[in-house]
Amino acid sequence: MYVQLSQRLKDVAIYVPKGAKLLDVGSDHAYLPIYLLEKGLITSAIAGEVVKGPYESALANVSAYDFNDKIEVRLANGLAAFEPADDVTTITICGMGGRLIADILDAGKDKLKDVDRLILQPNNREDDLRIWLMENGFTIVAEAIMTENGKYYEILVAEAGHMSLSDKEVRFGPHLMKDQSQVFQLKWQREINKLEIALGSIPLANQDDRAVIEEKIQTIKEVLDHDS
Ligand code: SAM
């Protein structure tokens, strides 16, 4: 019996180093650690969950897939799910808002110095998360963008190091901007379309409000035209 994993989480799995000791924060059904163990990609995992219902479904799945000896499910808030003695090497935090992910990291940042890699998949406010990483001694080593069920998802892979991001890089992602993938272009073209619709409903006389939206559109166009 193989676990059915969303393409979004499969894309996250690509960045988990082979042999990692994983902590998955907000593990819900524990699908990501189960998938990684089935593929032989990690040695063991902690599945952390703060809410009782998802914690119980994680427990049930770990038993159903017979991984009780490899995955420990812990009822805990954020990074309280692990201690230095657990030797966690990689942390995944996926499917939450970017601010919540940044808050979770911030609340346990002292514990992050022994962790090799963070793999973060915010559902929104990617800019807040990039700022947190930049201000807290992390550098983004890779980024990915994908689309599933009509939504766009970004994946940020961070390791200890220094980075200095421009305002544009904070918003659009330093690697994503360079790569200019088709999905990236579609995401931001959709944002332009939304802004143009908003602009259409603002009276011509309302110059200040129009200027704000026009500037946002212009910035996106500059980023999309970057390499053309
Ligand atoms: N990570 C899975 C995914 O990407 O599909 C589940 C995403 S689900 C939308 C978010 C999960 O994170 C929920 O199960 C929620 O209870 C959990 N969560 C939210 N805040 C948390 C925190 N501070 N610590 C641990 N888990 C948290």
Structure description:
- The protein starts with 6 loop residues before the first helix and ends with a helix.
- α4 (98-107) runs parallel beside α5 (126-135) and α8 (182-200) packs antiparallel against α9.
- It has nine helices and seven strands.
- Strands 3-2-1-4-5-7-6 form a seven-stranded mixed beta sheet, with helices on both faces.
- 43% of the residues lie in helices and 23% in strands.
- With 228 residues, it is of the alpha/beta class.
- The longest helix is centred in the last third of the chain and has 19 residues, at 182-200.
- α4 links the parallel β4 and β5 (117-122).
- The radius of gyration is 19 Å and the shape is elongated.
- It has helices at residues 7-13, 31-38, 52-64, 98-107, 126-135, 167-172, 174-179, 182-200, 207-225; strands spanning 20-25, 42-49, 71-75, 90-96, 117-122, 138-148, 151-160.
- Bound molecules: S-adenosylmethionine.
- S-adenosylmethionine binds at residues 9, 25-28, 48-51, 54, 77-78, 94-96, 104.
